[in-house]
Each structure stands twice: as C-alpha cells, then as structure tokens.
Amino acid sequence: MNLNNIEKVCINLSTVRNNIPLIQCITNYVTINDCANILLAYGASPAMCEAYDEVFDFTKISSALYINVGTLTKEQEEAAVLASISAKVNNTTVVLDPVACGAIPRKAAVINRILELGRVDIIKGNIGEIKFLAGEASAVRGVDSLDSGEGALDACIRLAKKYNCIVASTGKEDFVTDGTRSAIIQNGTEMLTKITGAGCMLGALCGATAAYSEDKFIAAVTAILSMNLAGEEAYETVKVPGSFKVKLIDCIYTLTEEKLKKEGKIIWQ
Amino acid sequence: MNLNNIEKVCINLSTVRNNIPLIQCITNYVTINDCANILLAYGASPAMCEAYDEVFDFTKISSALYINVGTLTKEQEEAAVLASISAKVNNTTVVLDPVACGAIPRKAAVINRILELGRVDIIKGNIGEIKFLAGEASAVRGVDSLDSGEGALDACIRLAKKYNCIVASTGKEDFVTDGTRSAIIQNGTEMLTKITGAGCMLGALCGATAAYSEDKFIAAVTAILSMNLAGEEAYETVKVPGSFKVKLIDCIYTLTEEKLKKEGKIIWQ
Amino acid sequence: MNLNNIEKVCINLSTVRNNIPLIQCITNYVTINDCANILLAYGASPAMCEAYDEVFDFTKISSALYINVGTLTKEQEEAAVLASISAKVNNTTVVLDPVACGAIPRKAAVINRILELGRVDIIKGNIGEIKFLAGEASAVRGVDSLDSGEGALDACIRLAKKYNCIVASTGKEDFVTDGTRSAIIQNGTEMLTKITGAGCMLGALCGATAAYSEDKFIAAVTAILSMNLAGEEAYETVKVPGSFKVKLIDCIYTLTEEKLKKEGKIIWQ
C-alpha cells in the first residue's frame, strides 16, 4: 500500500488513540497542567515523572520522553540530562523543546548536554530558538521570537542535518523537516500566542505522535497540524483567551482524521 | 439522635462549609492549582505550604494535611515526612495519596517513612496503588491503574487493618473502609479520567471533610460522593474535557446536601 | 496638558498594550499559569524566569520584576533576593507580593532581605499582610486575611513612608498610597476570593502597569481597577468559580480605557 503523506498523518493520529502512549514529561511548572491535560485529551497517557531518582528507570518504560527546558529547576535540569541518557540506552523517543535558548545562556548549556550525551529525535521550537541552535542570529525577547520567519526553513534543514533529527519550527507558518523532506504547515490562529503554553502543549503532542511511529517527520507534522486545526476550530467559536484555552482542549479531544485530511493546508517539499 | 450514614454525610458537607477548614497541601505541581481551586469551591481554605522550613509549624495550625507523592521534589519529600511527624505530634488529620507507588519504587519509600514516623488517617488511591500497598500484585502503567477492580474491597480492608486507618480506593466503583464498615460508591463518570488531577482533587477534598469530623470513614465517603456527583452533573452538560474540568469546579461549588441524599448510590456494608 | 488621575490610569493601560512590557515573575507554582495567562491577556509578555543561574542577567533585560513569596522553594528564595539586587543595580521596577508574611515567619525574613538588599517599587498585599509589615497586629489565617480593614489606609501610608514605595492593600475596599497621595478603590466582587490566585494575578498586573510608567502610584491603581472591573464584568455573567476564572481572563483581554473611565469608583485623597 502506497500512502501519501496526509494519509500517513491520519494513521498517526489513530495510532496514538489505539496505543495510548505513555508520555514522560520533564517540563516547566508554568504549563505542566496544560501539557498533561492536552495529552489526555489527545488519547495519550501523561506522566510528569521528573525526580532525579526516578527518571532513569521511568524513561525505560515510557513510550516517549518530552523535555522542555523552560524554567527548569536544578533538580529538573539534572533529571532531564539523565533521562535523555536513559532514552539513548533504552531506545525511547525524545522530543526536545529548547525554550528561550537564545535569550538565556544556561538553556543552551543544558540543551548541548542533552544533544551530546542523550538522544533527541525531534527538536521543536519557535523560529528564534531554531535559528539560535542552527548558529544564526535571530531576534528574541524573553521566551518569544520576534523573528520574521525569513530563511526559517533553511535554518531548520541545517539544524536537522547537524543533529540528524527532525526539526519543527513554529511561527506564522510552521516548518518540519528531516533535512531532506520538508513540510510547510499553513493552518493555525494567532490566538495560540495569546495563551501561555501553546508551544509546550505542542511539544508534548509531538511526544504522543512520535511514540509509536517510525516516521518521526510525519509524527511532528501530525502534532502541529492537530494543534493548528484545534486552534482554528476553537477560535471559530471563542475570540477571547481564557475561553479559548478551554475550548482548545475540547477540540483536541474531538479532532478527527477526517478533519486533518480535509482542512490541513500543507506544502510538502 | 440516631443518624443514618447518608445523613452523616450531609452533615459532614455542612461542617466543611460552616468551619472553612484550613487544608495544608503538599502536592505535585501538575494539579496544585486545581487542588487549591476545588478546596475553595467546596468551602475550605487551601494553603499550599510545603517549604521544609515552614511545614512543621504550619501543620500545627492546619485543620488537616493532604500529602500527595506525585512528582515530589527532594525538598517536598523531606517536607512531607516532617509535616506528617508534626501532624502526629500536634494531632492534625492526615490524608495520604500514594500516587504511582506501584510503578515507582521511590514513592513507596517515602510513603513508608510517612506511615512509620508520621500519622495517616486516610489513604486514598486508585485500586492499583491500594493493592500495591496491601502487598498484592496489580497492573499499573505510569500513574494509572489498569486493574479490573476484582478483589478491591478485600485489599482495602486488609490495608485499613494493617495501618489502622481509613482506606479509599477509586475506580469504576469506589470503595471506602475502616476495616470493619465499608461503603461501595457507584456514582461517577468516566470523564473524570480524561482530565488530569481528579484523583488529586479528591484527595484534597478528603482533607476538607476529615478536618472537623470524628468519623473519618464518613468523611472519605462524603468527599468521594461529592466528587462523583459533581462529575456526573458536569458531564450532563459538557462531554469534552476542557469544559468539563471548568464545570466540575462549578458543580462542587453548587453541590447541596439534598443532592448528596437524593442521588448518592452507596452500598453500606 | 493637565491630566486628571483617571485619565492617567487610562493612558497607563494603553502604555501596557503599546509597549508589551516583559514581566519577569518569580512566583509560587500554585498560580504561576494564571499569572502568565493574565499578563498575556492584558497585553504584556510574561517570563517566569526564576533559576538562580539565570535571574541576575534576566532582570537586567526585563521591563519589571514581580516577586511573590507564596510557597517559594529554596532555589526560588535565593533567586528572588538576587533578582531584586539585580533590579537595584540595573534600574528595573520591582513589585513585591508578601504572601502569608504574617502567618509564616520565614516569609518575613525573605521579604526583609529583599527590602534591605534589593529594590521595591510597589508592595501589594492583603490588609493582613500590609499591617504585619507596618508593624501592626492583624488577624490572619493561612494565606487569608481576616482583618476588618479598619485603619487599613493608615497602615498603608505608614508602610509607604517606611520603605519609600507604593503600597497597595486589597480587601473589601482596596487602598493605594505613595505616602502622600491615596486612592480608595471601591469596585470588585467577592467572587475574586473564591478562586485561588486573584491576588497573585493582580500583583503580576502591577508589574505590567508599572513597567513603563514613571508614576508607580497610578500604575498600582490601574492594575487594581483593571482586575476589579474585569471581576465585576465576569461576575455579571457567571456566578460560579470555575467558569468565573475563565471569564476573568477574557474580561481582562477585552478591558477598555472607556470602561476604566466610566465604571471606576475611586476616591482620590
């Protein structure tokens, strides 16, 4: 059977729901609740297991590990590195979210240790973060990217080749690449930038889609498209951020393969 | 006056609302906000006081202490043990939530220290956790129980006798026992498993109901029945998890004694 | 141009929205998500940057720093003091929220170090906390003030003169003073006390309004009035706390200068 890309994306979504992947998250406390709830709504099983004494063994039994370096405590920092080493040893998929790496030098140090000692399958960041990791200048401010997005795909491709992993970059358009194949995803809503944690939630979803999928490139596309379409649907009925966040979880829960197929605006390259 | 059990449950709810118990919580950061909000909605006063240097004195003035071992940091772990010792010395009621104790060995170690050095009035867990503590095999996966519930009440009774405390176990049916008296609570909705923190919130509510109640068995029943009925009512109007979580808090806030009496499906043994 | 106070308040709100101030928050994990979301909804850019190794440099680039001492970990405690020192050196505005300082001695110790070594532009607390810092007896219970509010403004004025800063105290009526000028704000809704974090969110908003404003007295009034009017509007449509919290964020997002001008009930002294 020869499937096209969007068909693979649809199958990826069903795979999550059929397998209920156990997603270990080491993530910031700002949006840890949102990450757990969106994973549940998507059909995955979240486990925010992050204690240094627990992570090595837990990563072994997890379907995927999501590491988000936003506001890591010292204990979380050590645990994140250790968990990524466990993932390498135990063949667990890892999604890395390099929050604010361009603005805060310590983030870059942690990320480098993870990339060096551990395993990373998908790097998912905003375009400012991705460009920074790719060694390029970019405008950042705190946790936000001010980058126009010019040259974004090129930066993603360079970074993907550098670390031999999938790179996903979010912004007005979202880019996913494995260094060879690329996807430009044109769905979404600006309202996702008016709530905290849309990026974190997306990173967690990448863990869910990548857990049981051999093709991590498709997995990253599935997660981004899911988030974007749920965001669009939520925004259709609510235009204010408190209610939008609630509705976003609802729409992730009710998301269908049919919707992915019908409404996804993806340029495959 | 000879009150039957459901009348005692109703009085328990009013006792919370009339006394506004101060509930100290040492709990995971995933659902700490939900625990605080549901306590407020229920009529209690939450205080997430967990710093090692603060807990001994604070437990002394608290009406009850809720300890949840999900994702404890090292500082929280030490604080939890110390607070439980203060509770023993100062006669403060303690509710223990043994999150993931079957899946993660370190959890069991913390729990044992609390049970050994401190005081525990109510152990509230899912059936997988309860069976583990009772020394039985059970299927767990991350923070979730995969147990069918067979033999659940027997395990609860054994555990209640072992530690001379109330044991409450949640699942399709919920069980509460003091080793002699038992209650099987048949209300609830599966939607409670689609949001993170229903178990944590329930544990916090157990603190509220047990704080001013001599009969901790009734207190655990009151908390579970409150959660289940609020869940049922929320699910009547919303079938999606983001909105359900919001509505759940609303329904806890508007819960009446009359509703407990009229809609509670409890088998008393 | 001679502006009256309420006109200054209105300009303060537009200043936030036009400048998108970067607000660094070192705050408790109970309501950290709410603080980030309300800042975004108000038009500011939150950054929960609190790691000891990160804060000194980050405070330098922040528009304002919000420090909330509720449930600080040891690392956060050290980071808060260091950040306040950086604020002094680098001329960054600081809002201090002295949560539970009357009930828990350790809080007072941290606050004193911040006041001694660092910089504080606005102290925002409930009346129990403010009276405690002003050296007066007051009834507190856990994180809540049980104070009647009698003599509140006098305590605020004394504290403002003691530390040469703005003092804002919340309760049935809210008071703001710089020691000379005072404002009594009579808007608000009791429902704000039925959710956790209304005080924390208000403190974060004070950071947003004070960031680009020379007149920190007006800034504190703007934040309080914004919160109170959003609360009133939310309460008009929802009377239950789960939904109220969601709606509160929505109403902060849609708040207009016109509303501030038309509905603000402020006694200027």
Automatic annotation (TrEMBL), chains A, B, C:
Its UniProt entry gives the catalysed reaction(s) as:
5-(2-hydroxyethyl)-4-methylthiazole + ATP = 4-methyl-5-(2-phosphooxyethyl)-thiazole + ADP + H(+)
Residues annotated as binding substrate: 48, 197
Record: residues binding ATP: 124, 170
| Superkingdom of the organism of origin | Bacteria
Please name the top-level EC class of this enzyme. transferase
Keywords attached to this entry: ATP-binding, Kinase, Magnesium, Metal-binding, Nucleotide-binding, Thiamine biosynthesis, Transferase
Is-annotated flag, keyword Metal-binding? Answer: yes
InterPro entries, per this entry? Answer: Hyethyz_kinase (IPR000417), Ribokinase-like (IPR029056)
Q: What is its EC number?
A: 2.7.1.50
Q: Does the keyword Ligase apply?
A: no
Pathway(s) this gene product operates in, as recorded in its UniProt entry: Cofactor biosynthesis; thiamine diphosphate biosynthesis; 4-methyl-5-(2-phosphoethyl)-thiazole from 5-(2-hydroxyethyl)-4-methylthiazole: step 1/1
Required co-factor?
Mg(2+)
Role this protein plays: Catalyzes the phosphorylation of the hydroxyl group of 4-methyl-5-beta-hydroxyethylthiazole (THZ).
The record's family statement is: Belongs to the Thz kinase family.
Name this polypeptide is given: Hydroxyethylthiazole kinase
Organism, per UniProt? Clostridium magnum DSM 2767
Gene it is expressed from: thiM_1
